[in-house]
Design brief:
Shape: globular
Number of helices: 1
Distance between the termini: 30 Å
Structural class: mainly beta
Largest sheet: 4 strands, mixed
Strand content: 25-35%
Helix content: 10-25%
Number of strands: 10
Order of helices and strands: HEEEEEEEEEE
Length: 162
């Protein structure tokens, strides 16, 4: 499954991913709603009954790789992304360059399966070294997708479902 995707040199990609993660974490913890983005952000409230619910700014998903998907994420994508109830997001995490043969990301987990639930991949077979994850938005709220590599490298992206 070869796709043309934007790529940065490893050091720039790691810096950009780290910076995005720090900005999202800061926004979530302080209630601030500013974050750097290349597309127009959309605000959404988290699905909390608390009167102090924090608005989370999210951005459009990168283009979809698979049919019937709202968008696709890779290890190069980080930050907060928007999704509507009923839509699907696909995740494809490729083993880091130079990793030993057979190295893969661990299964991708959702912090709130009631908001963003994993769905079966059906007959899809991922290329060698790629960990796939398909998730469907079940209810409004916020869920964070995460995975790690055996070497300790981690990935996370937040999905804001409205």
């Amino acid at each position: 499954m070869a796709t043309a995707r934007r790529t940065l040199p490893p050091s720039s990609r790691d810096f950009a991913a780290g910076l995005s993660a720090v900005l999202v974490a800061t926004a979530l913890l302080t209630g601030c709603s500013s974050a750097a983005a290349t597309s127009a952000p959309i605000s959404a409230r988290s699905a909390s009954s608390s009167p102090t619910a924090v608005a989370v700014r999210c951005h459009r998903l990168p283009p979809a790789t698979l049919p019937r998907s709202a968008g696709s994420l890779t290890q190069a994508d980080a930050g907060a992304f928007c999704l509507r109830v009923g839509q699907r997001v696909d995740v494809f995490l490729a083993a880091p360059k130079g990793a030993a043969q057979g190295t893969r990301w661990r299964a991708i987990g959702s912090s709130s399966p009631q908001v963003l639930a994993p769905v079966g991949t059906g007959v899809m077979t991922a290329p060698l070294g790629v960990t796939p994850g398909l998730f469907v938005a079940r209810s409004p709220g916020v869920s964070t997708l995460t995975s790690t590599c055996p070497d300790g490298t981690s990935w996370r992206a937040t999905l804001v479902v409205s």
